[in-house]
Amino acid sequence: MNFKATLKSLPLKFRFKSWMRAVTQSSEPDASMNSKHHTASRWLDDINRSLWTRVSASALLALSSGFVSSSQSAAQTAYPPPTPPPSAYGAPPSYQNQPSAPANSTYGQSVYGGPSTYSGPGTAVPTTPAPAPAPGNPYAAPTYQNGGYQGQAYPDQTYQGDVYQGGALPGPLQGSFPSSPNLAPPVVNQPTVREADLIIQGYPARTGRLMFGGAVNSDAGVTGQVTIDERNFDISRWPRSFGDLFSGTAFRGAGQTFRLEAAPGSYYQRYTAQFADPNLLGYLPISMSLSGFLYDRNFDDWDENRLGGRISFGYRVTPDLSVSLGVSGQNVEITDPRVNTVPELNDVLGDNGLYSGMASLIHDTRNSPLQPSRGHYFELSFEQTFGDYEYSTFEAEYRKYLLLRERADGSGKQTLSYSVQLGFSGDETPVFENYFAGGYATIRGFDFRGASPVINGVEVGGQFQWLNSVEYMFPLTADDAFRGVAFVDFGTVEQDIEIDSDNFRVAPGFGLRVAIPMLGPAPLAFDFAFPVLKADTDDERMFSFYMSAIR
């Protein structure tokens, strides 16, 4: 496009003649000269604005046409996108600090690694071979000599103005460079790898307990208690000095459990030692429990002494389901019978050896093992006994907990629970292994073992039991320290697998639960029950008390 032709196309002559005609033909008095002069000035401003507008538009049009033509020509001659060589990459060029070209110069193509030239009036930029990157640093910074970029060669890759025509940059260089051609590329350096030692010093929390206590209940009388409990035991870490024993480093650190308990009392004495490993040998998903016990109890009709041990292995199938297998052996000594007229009792006087294998399955979905309000507990077990007596025992227990109401903060729970115990054993079951009912753990409203079959005034128990309980618990205070209960216990114990209506027991009642934090999570229980159905030989007890989380 010719710039002179553009200027000739403007209507300057037409507007200038119109303005002159308006001035010369005017015959108004001097009073109107100011108005005419103002009109002429406005016409002159319009001419100037129109003139510069058209000049600017024409110039922009000419420049745009030139750049479009140059870009199309360069795009037609550009090389195809390159394939980066597997060797080290150099950095793309930069045009910072380069000499400015004249307005009428024609720019040529800039090739990676080749000369970057422009044609001007007698001006040429000398070229210098690109140096190789430093060893071990493939991303060495480019060098700039004589005002131009000299870097590692990238074949068939070109820059056209601000548009990169060679395809995507190599992987390590993508997104690393600014789009402006006037900014130098950053220097990419390899990160420095440093190593440091991290030393953590920690001390285990207290996992052992030494507890002293006592208890009293309506079934066993007054008993004391001394317990040593270690929840992070390690049976393989024997002490190497006396200092290890007193510092607490011996026998600790493997997550095992060790417990010693002594509970002497007026009618009941128990001494136990237990070791448990939640992960046998540290890597098998199998638990192991090993225990030994000495048990002595003075019943109304005879005295009983038991010495034995048990070993069992458990496997948790799911978080709620577990199975276990075990064997046990014990010696049961029966002495001091109250009467000598009961053959079942006379046959077991003295020492009795019992050995058994057992299997059990437990499904537990309770939200708390101590004071549950949701979920259920189901246990199914089978035991085969041999030795002086051979018989089988089958037992099932089910407990269901329903949450009726609670406060917004989770306190003040009102729960409804139901429990059932079912069991039966073989004909050769000895009298000291029979089922008994009566007391807080079975049917309240009766004396301990007072709701059991009787022969000649001796409570001999039976080979079948079916015990049930429905209980409603509700808060009495805002802090749940006092709670009330209303319950109905019912069921029977029979010598044979049957339910005799004459021996069926039903006892409704109410009670109080008192939570004392210093005594542990198990509350004190005080219950009053009133038998409405019973057998003629039963012994009643209206009031019972105990300390336990669950019955």
Report on this structure.
The chain has 551 residues and is mainly beta. Among the domains are: 63 residues; 64 residues, no CATH class; 249 residues, Porin, CATH 2.40.160.50. It is 13% helix and 37% strand. It contains five helices and 25 strands. The strands form five sheets. It has a 16-stranded antiparallel β-sheet with strand order 8-9-10-11-12-13-14-15-16-17-18-21-22-23-24-25, with no helix packed on it. A three-stranded antiparallel β-sheet has the order 2-6-7, covered by helices on one side. Helix 2 runs antiparallel to helix 3. The longest helix is centred in the N-terminal third of the chain and has 45 residues. The chain is globular. The N and C termini lie far apart (106 Å).
**Distance between the first and last residues' Cα:** 106 Å
Spatial order of the strands forming the largest sheet: 8-9-10-11-12-13-14-15-16-17-18-21-22-23-24-25
| Broad CATH class of the domain at 299-547 | Mainly Beta
Number of helices: 5
What is the approximate shape?
A: globular
Shape-level CATH architecture of the domain at 299-547: Beta Barrel
| CATH homologous superfamily classification of the domain at 299-547 | membrane protein fhac: a member of the omp85/tpsb transporter family
Helix share bin:
10-25%
What fraction strand? 35-45%
Topology pattern, helix = H, strand = E: HHHEEEEEEEEEHEEEEEHEEEEEEEEEEE
Give the helix/strand class: mainly beta
Major β-sheet annotation = 16 strands, antiparallel
What is the number of beta strands? 25
Radius of gyration: 51 Å
Q: Outline the low-pLDDT stretches.
A: 12-19, 22-37, 67-79, 87-127, 143-169, 171-177
CATH topology of the domain at 299-547: Porin
